[in-house]
Fold this protein.
Amino acid sequence: TKAWRLLRKKHGTGVVCFVIIPTESVSLDHCSRNSPIMDNQQPTVQTSSSQTGVDDADGAAEEDDEESSHSSDKELRLIEKAKQIYLKGVSAERSGRMQDAIMHYRRALQIVPDIEFRLANSSMWSVDEESSGSETECEDNGSPCDNDDTMPLHQRIKIKTSSANICSVAWEQKATHISDLPREVFMFILRWVVSSDLDILSLESVSKVCRGFYLCARDPELWHMACARTWGEDCGQLNQYDSWREMYICRPRICYNGVYINRTTYVRHGESSFQDSTYRPCFLVEYFRYLRFFPDGVVLMLTTPDNPYLSLGKLRSRRPAYTSVLSGSFWLEGTRVKAVLKKPAMKTSRSTGYRRGGRHNVEPQPEQVFHLELELRSVRGRANAQLVWKSYAIHSYWPGQESVATFDLTSTAFPPLWFSRVKSFTLVSESPL
């Protein structure tokens, strides 16, 4: 070729033949005939080629080791980068910035698709300063950690929750969030939630909102005040109970967010002297008896044939406006409830009319006082849901005279009273706990 002729003219025959052999597939015999140098250098070339093969093998092995170490270092750097981004997402989610958390999670998954499983199956979480600090402190103090199943739930949540705020913001908003309130102010709000009527069910509903609300709703001082409101001086100390909340739940007490109701039926015979088209030999009489208790010791009783939808409104206030409602006081002795009730005073005006020259006088009514004694029972898994009659007497007082009428407490005439919750009784709080 043209390149071949140019190289021959420039460098000579022997040298050109030695150089062109690897690239131009020229015959070795042809080169040896035309080049006297090949006879002297052929052994040297073979020795060099064999030595070069050994060096190439060692170099390839070293290059493979360098490439593998470089790839492993690169993979570790990617995992570390993805881990840091993922932990930023965790921190953003804890603080309530969900959009930032999703962005960090997405970036971490793009770098290492299984970063979440790598973190879950390894000890990489220990690099988080908060978690590592809490774990170290927990181990150094010898106290049980938050993963100890033997601890109560509120204590585990209290250990796990290290933030000073009661809760965190779920999304950005312009108005002031409830998490900005101091804990003391929020506890005062919970006292209004419970109120002086001891609406504990509303407090339990508040505790279901978040972990911070749960901890505040389990505050011992709050439950101590509820126990003192329920039993007064007989509250005592925590002897057989682990907490004030346990005392309030397990100890016999009256339910205040509703009424105790029973329904009584009996058969009355008809009047035989009036046998007309409306005559019936017997009538089935039905009436209801309601008892409502207030935490301050006030009790109301109403006996009426009206159904509960028409009667419960008469028991809404402590000072009833209806003469059919009896009011009084009660006290609790163990499982026994004792109450004393009276009819409200009726305003009577003296008549000024005359009948046949004589003054018409109204016969005075005796003052009646009702004495009740009932027993608290827990039936069908419902605590303190039933009141059973133990004694019932009516004391009538005239000037200088007193009479007592007692009743035979049969199961048909005086059936047990069952508790029924009335939501309208706890819609408004009049005063805090």
The two ends are 110 Å apart (CA to CA). Residues 1-50, 123-147 have pLDDT under 50 and may be disordered. DSSP finds 14 helices and eleven strands in the chain. Residues 258-262+289-345+365-426 form one domain.
